[in-house]
């Protein structure tokens, strides 16, 4: 339990107050919802957010995957009360099985309101950049976590968020999955980043964070330019005549908005924002061939099809699975694409 005098002392100075100018919170008086798991980063988010004058609501999501997870919710509730934030606990069900981490993340974000703030730090940004590179990402992936009110702590280090919790007298939860070498991010954190530091003779985290910042600026500029040059990506001629980097971005934006992404199964992804799987480079290139007249149609990952008809690109989702006996079959799609049929 936090001593009631501690929040008052922090508000009047100390480490937390000195870190606020490096944070990106909305103006005082704004409503702000913070996702707080009970780890040191998210608890520091709670502390810092309450010093801004925002009307803070803390949401804790319990996946029920670890023994004692209900106690973690109590810990977050007590910290919220001590710092004058509203608290709401949410419990979601995540069944055991493959891709547990990804499914838990999807369930967590599905239960949180749009614009929720998270406690990602500069260290998380560096890990994200390296993970994305190792997965084959392009410039948008190198841009990592986008800065803004949803990620107000991106300029802080993980050591600083722990120091904030210590100053506030808060106990935090250590998630044992953060040390599990089966997860790529953990190996990047515990093996690759220390090796990079050894080879470079310096801390690579600020370098990777700066790379992400520059990549985000370039990506944002190119995305805006692509939207200006190719406002409607279904107009095949406009796509074919646009410079390749802009045409590719226009098609990627179109496919992503449709939900035509790997693993979507013909439906928009349940995972919001940057966690949503983007279309592959191979899929984008196949659609560009169709737009340029090199093929009349192509099939994409997940069963989506794109064809050109009367100068337009037409996307068709996968056909609905056959209905069980005794049930009416689903409606057939209007367009049937052809896999890379050459003229």
Structure description:
This protein has a 3-stranded parallel beta sheet, covered by helices on one side. A 3-stranded antiparallel beta sheet has the order 4-5-6, with helices on one face. It contains 13 helices and 6 strands. Mean pLDDT is 84; it is low at 264-275 and 322-343. The longest helix is centred in the middle third of the chain and has 26 residues, at 204-229. The protein is mainly alpha-helical and 343 residues long. The protein folds into 2 domains: 5-121 and 156-174, 3-Layer(aba) Sandwich (Rossmann fold); 230-343, no CATH class.
CATH superfamily of the largest domain: HUPs
What name does the CATH topology of the largest domain carry? Rossmann fold
What do the pLDDT scores average to? 84
Tally of distinct domains: 2
Low-confidence stretches: 264-275, 322-343
What is the CA-CA span between the terminal residues? 72 Å
The number of helical segments is 13
Determine the structural class based on helices, strands and strand pairing: mainly alpha
Helix content: 40-55%
* Order of strands, widest sheet: 1-2-3
What is the H/E string?
Answer: HHEHEHEHHHHHHHHHEEE
Q: Regarding CATH, which class of the largest domain?
A: Alpha Beta
Please compute the radius of gyration using only Cα atoms: 23 Å
CATH architecture of the largest domain: 3-Layer(aba) Sandwich
């Amino acid at each position: 339990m936090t001593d009631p005098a501690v929040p008052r002392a922090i508000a009047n100075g100390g480490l937390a107050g000195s870190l606020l100018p490096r944070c990106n919170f909305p103006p005082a008086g704004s409503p702000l919802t913070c996702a707080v798991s009970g780890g040191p980063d998210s608890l520091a988010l709670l502390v810092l957010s309450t010093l801004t004058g925002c009307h803070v609501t803390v949401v804790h999501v319990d996946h029920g995957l670890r023994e004692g997870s209900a106690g973690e919710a109590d810990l977050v509730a007590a910290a919220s009360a001590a710092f004058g934030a509203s608290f709401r606990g949410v419990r979601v069900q995540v069944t055991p099985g493959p891709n547990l981490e990804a499914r838990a993340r999807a369930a967590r974000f599905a239960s949180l309101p749009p614009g929720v703030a998270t406690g990602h730090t500069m260290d998380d940004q560096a890990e994200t950049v390296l993970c994305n590179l190792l997965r084959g990402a392009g410039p948008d992936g190198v841009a990592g976590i986008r800065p803004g009110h949803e990620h107000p702590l991106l300029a802080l280090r993980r050591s600083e968020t722990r120091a904030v919790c210590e100053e506030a007298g808060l106990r935090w939860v250590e998630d044992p999955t953060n040390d599990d070498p089966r997860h790529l991010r953990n190996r990047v954190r515990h093996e690759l980043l220390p090796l990079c530091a050894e080879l470079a003779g310096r801390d690579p985290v600020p370098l990777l964070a700066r790379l992400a910042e520059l990549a985000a600026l370039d990506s944002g500029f190119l995305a805006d330019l692509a939207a200006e040059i190719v406002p409607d990506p279904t107009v095949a001629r406009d796509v074919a005549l646009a410079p390749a980097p802009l045409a590719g971005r226009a098609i990627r934006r179109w496919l992503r908005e449709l939900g035509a992404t790997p693993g979507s199964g013909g439906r928009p992804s349940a995972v919001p924002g940057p966690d949503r799987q983007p279309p592959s480079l191979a899929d984008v290139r196949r659609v560009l061939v169709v737009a340029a007249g090199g093929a009349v149609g192509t099939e994409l990952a997940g069963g989506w099809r794109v064809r050109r008809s009367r100068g337009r690109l037409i996307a068709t989702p996968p056909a609905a699975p056959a209905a069980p006996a005794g049930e009416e079959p689903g409606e057939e799609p209007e367009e049937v694409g052809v896999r890379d049929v050459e003229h």
